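Structure first, sequence second, as always.
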């Protein structure tokens, strides 16, 4: 009787919190860890290399996504993974103050990353199973908004808090340990809320399979179906190269803002970076995502693809300006970061909706996971060398290279094929 009552729960009750929860561990692993390790004295080369390796769970998540499809309900997977994510956050908090913190905290970040990647599989499948295509187009902006709000919480408000604790305690490891304990408590609260509030859609069932076939054979069938798609080479090229420049910029932006002017940086404090990059920047990124979802729902993905790929790449030039000017004026730095993040948010909407577009079919949860796995690979590999390249050529020439690195994305946008009607709200 309970399942009948909650089957059609209003999406506003669960989509915002689900994607807010989905964003927290990702932003911690990919961005907050970069700021934390920079403040704890790790080099840009090591930060970029090892935190880029943390993309691996998202890269290989297609290898276990069919099991999420075939075993149990997406709702149960979501709840279980939220418990594990909370445990991983607590583990990082406990290891920061000890010797060899870099190795031990990375181990817990790996646990956090694998739990988060599995949570992504289940949550994204739950999203597609519970909403019509028109609702998916409308809520893609909403889900991106709350995903971005989690970024404000993670790399904005909590980084500001960490900076305040650094100053007030005079103990940088203790400040970051407290910050991660707060994150752990927040995630346990998500677990409790979603255990009671998530709906029970009728189609949230294990994927159908022949009784005579094994899970392994179904896995092979599911995986092979994705690579049999028409124009699969162009599809993969688009996924891998759409954010080729952004994948390198993401790893170096925060260290650039934190580094002193003597080594080519801006020289902001931890709290100032939390305000400029993690709050103002993410608010603009969020606003861009909302507008992107709205306009695509009216005119379709194909209509807006080129304006969006221009908007995600062209504003990268602001970092060239910042590297040459090297001003610490928060208003100016904030305005430059806001421009870049606004364009990123607007352009990223097209990218996410394209992943949904190519994932339609019987195994949409698994195929979406495969697509996002390649998305993570496209972020992981360029990110790994970005720190080494920056330290080799300096911040000025590195950001010039970022502008050149936008070219492959434009080439793939010219080649990709999209149904003109996809994404329109009907």
């Amino acid at each position: 009787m309970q399942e009948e009552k909650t089957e059609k729960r209003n999406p506003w009750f669960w989509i915002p919190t689900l994607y807010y929860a989905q964003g927290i561990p990702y932003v911690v692993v990919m961005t907050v860890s970069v700021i934390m390790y920079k403040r704890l004295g790790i080099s840009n080369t090591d930060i970029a290399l090892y935190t880029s390796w943390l993309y691996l769970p998202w890269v290989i998540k297609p290898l276990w996504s069919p099991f999420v499809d075939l075993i149990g309900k997406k709702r149960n997977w979501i709840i279980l993974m939220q418990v594990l994510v909370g445990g991983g956050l607590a583990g990082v908090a406990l290891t920061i103050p000890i010797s060899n913190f870099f190795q031990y905290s990375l181990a817990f970040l790996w646990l956090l990353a694998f739990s988060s990647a599995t949570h992504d599989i289940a949550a994204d499948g739950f999203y597609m199973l519970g909403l019509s295509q028109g609702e998916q187009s409308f809520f893609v902006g909403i889900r991106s908004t709350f995903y971005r709000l989690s970024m404000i919480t993670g790399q904005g408000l909590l980084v500001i808090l960490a900076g305040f604790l650094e100053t007030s305690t005079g103990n940088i490891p203790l400040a970051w340990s407290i910050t991660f304990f707060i994150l752990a408590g927040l995630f346990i609260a998500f677990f409790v809320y979603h255990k009671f509030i998530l709906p029970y859609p009728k189609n949230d069932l294990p994927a159908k399979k022949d009784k005579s076939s094994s899970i392994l054979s179904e896995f092979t069938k599911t995986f092979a179906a994705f690579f049999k798609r028409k124009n699969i080479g162009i599809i993969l090229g688009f996924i891998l190269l759409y954010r080729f420049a952004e994948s390198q910029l993401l790893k170096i932006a925060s260290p650039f803002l934190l580094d002193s002017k003597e080594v080519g940086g801006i020289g902001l404090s931890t709290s100032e970076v939390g305000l400029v990059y993690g709050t103002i920047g993410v608010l603009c990124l969020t606003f861009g995502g909302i507008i992107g979802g709205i306009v695509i729902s009216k005119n379709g993905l194909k209509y807006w693809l080129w304006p969006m790929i221009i908007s995600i790449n062209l504003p990268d030039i602001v970092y060239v300006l910042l590297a040459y000017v090297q001003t610490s004026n928060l208003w100016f730095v904030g305005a430059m970061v806001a421009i870049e993040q606004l364009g990123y948010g607007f352009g990223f909407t097209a990218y996410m909706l394209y992943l949904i577009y190519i994932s339609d079919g019987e195994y949409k949860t698994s195929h979406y996971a495969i697509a996002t796995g390649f998305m993570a690979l496209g972020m992981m590999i360029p990110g790994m060398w970005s720190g080494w390249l920056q330290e080799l050529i300096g911040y000025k020439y590195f950001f010039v290279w970022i502008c050149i690195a936008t070219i492959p994305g434009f080439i793939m946008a010219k080649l990709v094929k999209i149904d003109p009607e996809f994404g329109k709200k009907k």
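Margin note: DSSP finds 18 helices and no strands in the chain.
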